[in-house]
């Protein structure tokens, strides 16, 4: 018997509502002998407006003590663009070295997709989470004048690329199709592109059973809509991963069902699990938000903490619910209740 | 009466075949009193293998004398990734300051799309062509070691952003819907993002009739598959433009019909027109390539040179052909002949 010590960050907009359902399902999924302890944090727009703070060193120290973090959504139109993204979301990913950003896509029978012909979609994107154009490197000179120059520096290291590429190979190796696609733009971004390609080819030698493939990011977006069934595992850089995972979510059931894990496989720091969608302030507080993406993020959290059977049970409950969902409109709470009931049964 | 002095670069793979059709249609479209003079250049993989050259200063001097350039496709698997892209395609865009990269998307009735429900798609992307992450800035240290660091620097200037943003506003102003969407990632790439956003908002003041909108690039990919009808004109950075125009092509009939213009509106240098697709070596020489994208690029070329009526005639011929195309398989030549016949009639 042991306990899970979970940090909960509901955040802004619909975050509160969807996180409540995630916790409901988590409680239903855990074995009796596992004690769930949660501590709630008030990060996001409210705290920023009240105190000017987004994420302090003391916050990081406090968060660090938990086994994992469940996040709803952070972001509000009342806060200037970039403040909460750079000051909270990215700060946390960097501080806790969340270098494996895991984003599975699976289109279930009966789930709406904008694509014709309901293709077979079942792949996972392993997005690098701590490098690339996300480092905040760069700057501005002569701001606001006609001579302004603004730069953004994408930073890529052999260390950073290799660990995420190896993680992706291991995930591909563990899946039935054993196929890994590197997505980059190595014909234009030749410095970073050569590093990614060299490391990818080198690590491939350690995984002879994995079939490998390379696509430029622009071509990858084409295949994501014309032939998504070709993908099994994709590994890619932070920015390309941001872009293609939103597209992947759109084609495989929408961002209402897209889960993600910001993972530090070393367990030196807690990993964080969150829906891919944002805070959707336009529908907040109305019980309209779909908590499915948060519940699927809870499944990733369970798997990360070693509760594989429970993770699989949550995923099976979601799959059954989505397949049978039909056209009936349910509230956030009703979907959460239905999922928790399935998991408990 | 005057003449058009055209540089023709068939290039690699299917380039030769599709350019031949483009020229056929161009000849059919031009008024009797306009003399068409063409000069063919042998750039691409063959010349690179024979001489090691991709594009010399002498080549640039020679190309510069023409009124416009028609390009088929450049690229071959026998050449290391990046050599022809950076050494020819991008070198030319930079040398001739092709800062307006124009890529229209229109889904015609009867044309296949991977999207369900045949949405109404009719928008144009204005992609910046000479800045951003495409400048070749950056580098590598400790190459090939476990301590390698590779950087890519996105360079953005007020001068460069403003001219392309103003061009996009003017294009939006000239269209019935008068709507312009800025696509960037200003919540993460805050230095470049603020420059783009500030310039966009400032120039908007000069175009009070144009409705404006902003989307993060990841969200834009979602809307391109769930609600492409929302777009009228999009303006965006070089790399984001590369990515979303391939996706735009995929949803609006495929890269077989996606045209582009690399435009220098000042006319100090010739602009270049090319299909968005690549050299497709797997189908080269078999008469299987669809020349439609090249023919639509010829329409952009005609419009750029002031032949608006002829451009519209070429576009109307393509629209009629696509709408009536049906399932019959035609060769590259047959499609070119059919389009030329429609244009001439
Ligand atoms: C909100 C933003 C910082 C974030 C990102 O770009 O990573 C989001 O788009 C995501 O994909 O998690
Ligand atoms: C081939 C490559 C250099 C080019 C680009 O990235 O611009 C192509 O993808 C395009 O979109 O024209």
Termini separation of chain A = 22 Å
- CATH homology superfamily of the largest domain in chain A: Isopropylmalate Dehydrogenase
Please give the number of β-strands of chain A: 12
Ligand kinds = 3-isopropylmalic acid
* The CATH class of the largest domain in chain A: Alpha Beta
Shape of chain A: globular
Total domains of chain A, how many? Answer: 2
Helix content of chain A: 40-55%
Largest sheet of chain A: 10 strands, mixed
Q: How are the strands of the biggest sheet of chain A laid out side by side? A: 2-1-3-12-11-4-5-10-8-9
Model description:
2 copies of one chain form a homodimer. The first copy, chain A, has helices at residues 15-29, 45-51, 57-64, 83-95, 158-173, 190-204, 217-226, 238-251, 292-304, 308-324, 332-344; strands spanning 2-11, 34-40, 68-73, 100-106, 122-128, 138-141, 149-157, 179-184, 211-216, 233-236, 259-263, 271-275. Chain A is α/β, with parallel strands linked by helices and 345 residues long. Chain A has 2 domains: 1-99 and 255-345, Isopropylmalate Dehydrogenase; 113-128 and 154-252, Rossmann fold. Chains A and B meet through helix 4, strand 6, strand 7, helix 5 and helix 6 of A and helix 4, strand 6, strand 7, helix 5 and helix 6 of B. The complex binds 3-isopropylmalic acid (IPM) (2 copies). One 3-isopropylmalic acid sits between chains B (85, 89-90, 242) and A (187-188, 218). One 3-isopropylmalic acid sits between chains A (85, 89-90, 242, 276) and B (187-188, 218).
